[in-house]
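quick one, two chains, predict together pls
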Amino acid sequence: MRHLTSRLMTAIVALMAFTAVLALVLILGDLIAKGASSIDWAFFTKSPVPAGETGGGVANAIVGTGLVVGMAALIGLPIGIGAGLFLAEYGSGRLGFLVRFIADVMNGTPSIVIGIFAWTWMVKPVGRFSGLAGSAALAILMIPMIARTTEEMVRLVPHSLREAALALGYPRWRTSLRIVARTALGGIVTGCLVGVARVAGETAPLLFTALGNLNFSTDVRHPMQTLSLQIYVYATGPFEEWHRLAWAAALVLMSLVLILAVVARWATRQRYGRGR
Amino acid sequence: MTTLPIEPVPAPPSPPSIETPSAEPRWTSLRGVNASDRVYKTILTGLALALPLLIVALFLQLFVSALPAIRRFGFSFLWTSTWDPVAEIYGAAPMIFGTLASSFIALLIAVPLALGVAIFITEFAPRWVRQPVAFLVELLAAIPSVVYGLWGVFVLIPFLRSYVVPPLKAVFGWTPFFQGVFYGNSLLAGGIILAIMIVPYIAAVSREVLLAVPASQREAALGMGATRWEAVWTAVLPYGRAGLIGAIILGLGRALGETMAVTLVIGNRHDISLSALQPAYTMAAAIANEFSEATTNMYLSALFEVGLILFVITVVVNAFARLLIWRVARGTAVGSKAL
């Protein structure tokens, strides 16, 4: 009887794992089934056409995503990596504890709240929505994530390496940058990729900052379209054609995010195999 | 003041200088090293301070923006349910209720699922399955929120309408929780989408907590003749209890603040209904929907107050969760492996 219970629970637990994986397979499968047929060359090279007409693409949204996320990375990565180095190098004191704790807490802050915060600081004073404000919001989301992964990657560097450098008379800062950070560089880069992938799919912080733009635009001081915003608009719209495009855009966004995430994790695994 | 970092800097060997060495120069040369080190530390500290500054700025800004609404409505904002932009009367009770209710449904579904995943991966799965399953489940976290929403609107809701709600109504239709006509966008749909979204977070942290349970716990239980499940149930789970609760609360924090997917499927209606089949509203969804149409200052301020409440709740929930998780899994070398 007891062994039967054990068997049964093993089966149930395995079923749970199967269900979770099934959810992923179903969602990805639907994305491909409903999105793939709408993807052609024009989809990548054209901007949206007025509602009611068929055709049109998401060229503006793809370029917009690249610009908004790219600028967010420019703002967020240096701060995040610096904070991560601080946590790894000087993080054992009270300030380190506080920063680490706040980073973890901020990782769970609703992105919509960060969106309205960015609106108050970057949109309201200027009086117009802008891609730049969107980037700022995404950067705020990115910083705690990057800080924590950087810290973890730097901590994986063997202590002996640091001691060797210090013993050779390297000052601490050069040891930290040239030896430790460099050794962990692969890990830090992949951590950054994961962070960028995560914010690339964000919509909520962009609703009131980047706003969205149906025309092709590369001016970051004005409203900008991103894939995520476009999916939202298309998904909530009444037209069959829009829904078709929403699926296609979702497939593109998903592929983008997945490729980044998979590449990042695969690279990390290569370097720091966690054989379990 | 800050001359001594935590690990003392080993004194670099003094260069083989020709000048006569005295006790003093050694220190001056060290000073020089320390100066550049101090600059480095100052820069890093400055960058790290960005985080505390941000969280304080977030709170203060939300508070200041919400102040007109706080002054005008006081605490009644929390439990009145009139939301009338024309008459400028705002009460956020339906959203607070909807946020809590949808998160509750999400936890109801996600907790067994996620704990099952974590237990399977750490305790029962054959070695070669562990990494792939863990990886696939974590990929769920990589799917953008708006894609979940799209999937919810066009796949999940039709599926619920045809296959899930009719039997649910047949069996539980008499309870207040499954009353009314099901139109699609509903608390139930929001809860289910949220559940799928938070499974990877709960599973990843739980897995880490379970991995931190010493092998001796399992061995002791097995050695006393326990079956593998009994070992998990009586030795492993109780040992990691605090961390597992932390993982669940962390999932709750995610669910509370999730915006886009919920906005797309929950129905966005300012109403409190116990029925999971009825449309509802969440705080995040309200901000997403109404912020751009908020034309008056009071309307805007009310939405900021909603944001402030949401922010404070999630910060408290997350802080609590982190403390619980740290108590268990902090001893591991790397700390949090979950992304």
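The longest helix of chain A spans residues 2-35.
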